[in-house]
Design brief:
Layout: E1 4-10, H1 14-25, E2 31-33, E3 47-48, E4 57-58, H2 59-72, E5 76-78, E6 82-86, E7 92-96, E8 101-109, E9 113-115, E10 131-132, H3 135-138, E11 147-150, H4 154-163, E12 170-173, H5 183-190, E13 195-198, E14 201-208, E15 213-220, E16 226-230, E17 233-236, E18 240-242, E19 272-274, H6 286-306
Parallel strand pairs: 1-2, 1-8, 2-5, 8-19, 10-17, 11-12, 11-17, 12-13
Antiparallel strand pairs: 3-4, 6-7, 7-8, 9-18, 14-15, 15-16
Helix pairs in contact: 1-2, 1-6, 4-5
Length: 307
């Protein structure tokens, strides 16, 4: 680790590992720093049914396959996380939580984002067991079943509208007295008789049968009154936090903290690339992250060849 590496990849979700696969095939000898959540958000999901070539596969199994493929090609993995970076001087320098210093000529950032959570009883117990953040990913599992969505912004409205394809038993819980989504998104939900909205409320507890959630406790934030609602799934749509804190003084970020790209994967510093949810607050799919990881590796390869 004392030498200057050609390429370091920070993050081991679909974007990071796909970048590792392409970079390994290009003989860049990449090293993937796995981070605080090895495997990314798919490690907390159940079945994935929208990954090409896999009719149905558990999220952790899919990530294991991707990692094994990258390792077979020569990609190295380090089970540490990056705490500090210096991207203003070349070669770039990274420091891990174990005080390991790593120098590299190019860098791919694929640190992803984390869904904001309710931090209520039962949330961690049933995460991936009916508590999820992606209706596009998991919605089809709950056909004709009662579902609850938390949030009042565009994402929550999009999730609610999407779920009308599968069920007419939809409840939206919002902490404010009116929705914050854009007019069009909001009106689409308000005009749908199959979507019930509970205002000034939050989820105070998630209850299940040990294997899956069965109901949630909804608490009115003003009156403190509580009611139990049966549900087979709870979609959290209260926002995401990009894992970009350590890059704040180094790279250009947007107002939400996502890395700003110039072109496809180039960041504000030449030789530093980014891919996946750290750059994307719109699509947030494993397959789009993987595709961008591929682009980042190809861009890094061209950068190294030209320098």
């Amino acid at each position: 680790m004392n030498k200057i590496h050609k390429l370091i990849i920070i993050g081991s979700g679909p974007a990071g590992i796909t970048a590792g696969i392409y970079a390994s095939r290009a003989a860049l000898n990449p090293i993937v720093i796995q981070g605080q959540a090895p495997g990314g958000q798919l490690m907390g999901t159940s079945y994935v049914e929208n990954w090409p070539g896999e009719k149905s596969i558990l999220g952790p199994e899919l990530m294991s396959k991707l990692k094994n493929q990258a390792a077979d090609l020569g990609c190295q993995f380090i089970e540490e996380k990056i705490d500090k970076v210096d991207l203003k001087n070349r070669p770039f320098t990274l420091w891990t939580n174990n005080n390991r210093e790593i120098k590299t000529d190019s860098l791919i950032i694929a640190t992803g984002s984390e869904p904001r959570k309710l931090n209520c009883p039962g949330e961690s117990t049933y995460w991936g067991k009916g508590v999820t953040t992606c209706a596009t990913c998991d919605g089809a599992f709950y056909k004709d079943r009662p579902i609850v969505i938390v949030g009042g912004g565009d994402t929550a409205m999009e999730e609610a509208s999407f779920m009308t394809k599968f069920t007419n038993q939809i409840t939206v819980v919002h902490i404010l007295d009116k929705l914050t989504a854009s007019h069009t998104m909001k009106q689409r939900v308000l005009d749908n008789p199959n979507i019930n909205i509970i205002y000034n409320s939050t989820i105070s507890e998630i209850i299940g049968n040990e294997n899956h959630i069965t109901q949630v406790v909804i608490e009115n934030t003003k009156t403190k009154e509580k009611q139990n609602i049966k549900t087979d799934v709870l979609f959290l749509a209260i926002g995401l936090t990009p894992n970009s804190a350590i890059f704040k003084e180094q790279l250009e970020l947007d107002k939400m903290g996502y890395i700003v790209l110039k072109g496809e994967t180039q960041t504000s510093i030449e030789g530093v690339f980014a891919a996946g949810d750290i750059t994307d607050c719109k699509y947030r799919q494993a397959i789009t992250s993987a595709g961008q990881g591929c682009k980042a590796a190809l861009d890094a390869q061209r950068f190294l060849e030209n320098n």
